[in-house]
Design brief:
Elements: H1 11-23, H2 26-38, H3 42-65, H4 72-80, H5 82-114, H6 121-136, H7 140-153, H8 157-160, H9 181-195, H10 201-204, H11 214-239, H12 242-246, H13 251-257, H14 267-297, H15 304-320, H16 325-365
Length: about 375
C-alpha cells in the first residue's frame, strides 16, 4: 500500500502547483531581465529556456518512476547511503528554504514599493506568514486544493494586459535576431529563475494519484508558464522601447499603470492584491519541501514542529534584515545560480547515477 495514500493530489493539482510556483515572482521582472542581454530577441531565449526546462522535467519524472514510493530525501539515502544521502538532503533543504525566503522578502519589498510605503517589514511578514503557515501545516493535499483556488482567483489577470495594446509598436520586435546568436543563447540563463519550480516534481511525484500522467502533467505546467511568460514579454516589448524597458524593475506592473478604466484607478494595486495568492503559491511548495525534508531527516512523523521554527525565524529576521532593491536583486540572482545546479545539473547527475545503481543491483541479483 502506498504510504502517502491518505495525502494524495490529483493531476490537476499537480499541474497547478508546479505552474503557480513558476509564474510567481519571475513574471514581474522577466521582460527586463531578458532585454538586458538579448534585447528584443529575449522572447527567443524564453522559448529555448522552456525547451530546456521540459527536457529536465522529463528526466526528473524518469528518475522518480523507478522509485515511485520515495520522496527525494528518501531516494538520496537509498542511492548514496546514510551519510552522503543526508548531506545531499541538507543541501536540498537549505535550497528550498532559501527559495521560499527569497520570494517572501521580495514580496514584502514589492508591496512596500507599490502599495504601502511606510509599513514596517515585520508587520507585513507577520501578516503574510499566518496564511502561509495555515496552509503548509496541513500538508500537500491542502496545498493542492489551495492551488486550485488560486488558479480560479487569478484566471482573469492575464487578460488585463490586453488593455495595454492601445499604443503598441510591433516594429519594436524587428529585425528578429538582430543581437546575434550568442546573446540569445547566453540569455537562456536569465530564464532559469523563471522556470524554477519544475524541480518540485521530486517531492510531488510520490503524492500524485495518477503517476502514469506525471510526464503529461509537467509538460502542461511548463507550457502554461511559457505561455504566460511569452505573453507578458511580447506585450512589454511592443509597448516599451528597448531603453525604456531596462529602466523598469517590474515592467509587468508598469504595463498595468498605463491601463485606465472608467471605474478603477491604480489598477496595479488591485492586481498586486490578488497576485499575492500566486506569490504565496511560490513560497508554500518550497517551504513544504524544506520542512518535509527536515522532518524526514530527523525522523519526525510530523512536519509542523519544523514549520513553526522556520516561520518564527522569518519573523525574527524581519526585525533587523531590511533588504534594499539591490539586495533583493542579488538574492534573486543567487537563487537562480543555486537553481541552475539543483534543477538543471543535479537531475542529470542523479539520472546517470540511478541508472548505474539499478544496473549494479540487477547484476548482483543475477
Amino acid at each position: 500500500m502506498n504510504k502517502y495514500a491518505f495525502n494524495q493530489i490529483s493531476l490537476k493539482q499537480y499541474i497547478f502547483i508546479i505552474f503557480e510556483a513558476q509564474v510567481g515572482i519571475g513574471v514581474l521582472s522577466l521582460p527586463r531581465d531578458l532585454a538586458k542581454t538579448a534585447g528584443k530577441d529575449g522572447w527567443i531565449s524564453l522559448l529555448l529556456g522552456w525547451i530546456l526546462s521540459m527536457l529536465l522535467s522529463l528526466v526528473i519524472i524518469r528518475i522518480m518512476k523507478k522509485n515511485p514510493e520515495y520522496t527525494l530525501f528518501e531516494l538520496l539515502s537509498k542511492y548514496f547511503g546514510k551519510w552522503v544521502g543526508k548531506s545531499l538532503s541538507v543541501l536540498w533543504i537549505l535550497y528550498a528554504a532559501y527559495a521560499a525566503s527569497v520570494v517572501l522578502f521580495s514580496t514584502i519589498h514589492i508591496i512596500k514599493i507599490w502599495i504601502i510605503l511606510d509599513v514596517r517589514d515585520f508587520i507585513l511578514m507577520t501578516l503574510f506568514v499566518i496564511p502561509i503557515y495555515m496552509i503548509t501545516k496541513h500538508g500537500i493535499r491542502v496545498i493542492g486544493l489551495f492551488a486550485e483556488l488560486v488558479f480560479l482567483v487569478s484566471l482573469w489577470m492575464p487578460f488585463l494586459l490586453f488593455y495595454s495594446f492601445k499604443d503598441t509598436h510591433w516594429l519594436f520586435l524587428l529585425p528578429i535576431g538582430k543581437e546575434g546568436l550568442l546573446p540569445i543563447l547566453s540569455t537562456v540563463k536569465s530564464t532559469i529563475l523563471s522556470f524554477l519550480g519544475f524541480e518540485l516534481a521530486f517531492i510531488l511525484y510520490p503524492f500524485l494519484k495518477d503517476k502514469k500522467s506525471a510526464s503529461k502533467g509537467i509538460i502542461i505546467a511548463n507550457s502554461l508558464s511559457m505561455f504566460i511568460f511569452l505573453m507578458v514579454t511580447v506585450i512589454s516589448y511592443v509597448r516599451f522601447s528597448q531603453d525604456e524597458i531596462k529602466d523598469y524593475a517590474y515592467p509587468t506592473l508598469n504595463l498595468l499603470k498605463l491601463i485606465r478604466l472608467p471605474f478603477l484607478e491604480r489598477l496595479e494595486i488591485t492586481f498586486l492584491s490578488f497576485y499575492l495568492f500566486l506569490l504565496f503559491m511560490t513560497i508554500i511548495p518550497y517551504l513544504y519541501t524544506a520542512v518535509l525534508g527536515a522532518s524526514q531527516l530527523c525522523g519526525m512523523p510530523d512536519h509542523r514542529n519544523v514549520l513553526v521554527i522556520l516561520v518564527c525565524l522569518w519573523i525574527l529576521l524581519s526585525f533587523f534584515f531590511l533588504p534594499s532593491s539591490s539586495q533583493i536583486t542579488q538574492m534573486g540572482k543567487s537563487w537562480g545560480t543555486a537553481g541552475t545546479f539543483f534543477a538543471f545539473v543535479f537531475p542529470i547527475f542523479l539520472w546517470i547515477y540511478g541508472w548505474l545503481f539499478h544496473l549494479a543491483r540487477k547484476e548482483q541479483k543475477q
